Fold each of these.
Amino acid sequence: MTSRERIRETLNHRVPDRVPMVDICFWPETVERWRAEGLPAGISPTEYFGLDEIGVLGFQANLQLPEETLDETDDYVVRRDADGAVVRSWKNNYATPSRLDATIKTWDDWNAHKENFGGNVSVESIGETYRQLRERDCFITIRPCEPMWYFLEHLMGFEMALETLAEQPDFVADVIRTHTEFNHRLMQQLIDAGMEFDGLWFFSDLCYKNGMLYSPKVHRELVLPSHQATRAFCDRHDLPMIFHCDGYMGEMIPLLIAAGFDAMQPIEARCGNDIRKYKKQYGADIVFFGNISTDVMCRTKDEIFEEVSTKVTAAKEGGGYMYHCDHSIPPTVSFENYSFVIDLVRQYGGYES
């Protein structure tokens, strides 16, 4: 099977030749370490280990507000971005930017600017990236920004956004609705331009280590209608849906199933998620994509063996599992240990023909 065929079969809950093997993010420091430990120059980890490639073709709309640099040092730069958010980004390490302030703080602020939302996204530039990915015959996902994540992370920042979520739910609903409608319009334009996608992949960290950032009730009222509308769009175009979310997923899984998502990723082990348990509860309803702990990857071979062999064996039963680490591969993982992980996934992830 090709990687594209293998992933398609798995997302359709059918049994491929082996579980797909995907890791989408290796820290730059990780690759630098691995070069010194045996990874040949000029070849990516995905190529070297023969991983199944998923092409991610993303777009993110904004309000097209004026951008400016507010402060800069040797370590960081503070900028006001096109959504009016003030963001500190680090220059010398692979760390999440900090959001310091926002321009959009009220429904009136949003209404004053929302007519400009999304107009900056270029179908032509997306098309060029699409052609490059299609030449590699990989599984290509379209990745619009997930609407609730846009509100929480990009428009306001978590603290202000979560307060607004509690105090002005109608404002939040309008942002989500506007964003959802834009996503569907642009994806339809891309499809009408001849682009054939293999799936949709939302990246949206709506959970933290102990659970959801807000209640399941709020999700059902504000977010689920958006996700179900996107499911209807994807059904019209035969696109499976994958949902990326860090944190503890116990409360979120039933909501993802209710929305019609086909797979969840990366299923952080350090937050208490365990696919050996989830497979028994939800294996008929959703594909599990990940959960192999990078914390364990830094430990002994015996501990790595236990982590990989038991999880892959349990999760692959009847199809419906794709290998991925439980987040991204940090430089604490040695080249030798990662090689051992991939060897184990190949050994325990095969299916009898």
Amino acid sequence: MIQTIGIIGLGLIGGSMAIDLKRRGFAEHVLGVESDPVSAAAAEKMGLADEIVDCDQCISRSDLIVVAVPVATAVNLVCHILDSFKESDSTGKIVIDVCSTKEQINLATHYHPCRGQYVSTHPMAGTEYSGPWAAMPNLFDGRACILANAEESSPKALRTVEELYNVLNMRLIYMNASAHDVHTAYVSHISHVTSFALALTVLDKEKDEKHIFDLASGGFSSTVRLAKSNADMWIPILVQNRDNVLQVIDTYLNKMQQFRDAIADLDEDRVRSLIEEANRIKKILR
């Protein structure tokens, strides 16, 4: 059990972690940090943390610190926290991040004297909603969590973080940071880009929004659901993972062109072939 855990960013991921880590007995005391006053007030009222404190208090008082902020901010913040460990000789403390890109943050921390006290993680769970209001219990149950470049973390820090994610009932996968960013570009980041693009396409074509809601079926709703995701979170993800995302977009556009050409040529056999080839995904996703 951790005496005090600090969570910087009490949105969907950080807030949901706060709920279950306290409820399931991993931490005795939860400190929360929220820079937005409205979100801070909401998090306090909802009881996501035992105390809402400023960032410096959170760092100094916590045994384990969770950085749950957008990736553009997380890189500098993790380095700042590691700097504070060095200055205070708090070698028993641990910091983790929960960001959706891993290569840049691992490059930034690679040569830090306290790199062993940092564990790079990506719990692959979430919804299209954000803020403290989106936090919920049991969000992580049964989902995968990536531990990136785990060999660079100290054995003690790694064991503690493994215990944390076991408490959240997550499946642990160990992966190189660079490989992580390639894989998430395919399974996560492109899904959001295509959802944003589909939403823009429909909104551009269908000026009467009432018809969208009247005619929207389950298929459309599930496909465009991710278009509700927060821009402040997704812009830095797409920028940090730019090269991988561009490669996936190019592949996606090529597949779209194949569908377009087959439909334009009234080539039913080719359309069938493309659909049946895509159906092979059923062997992977059940």
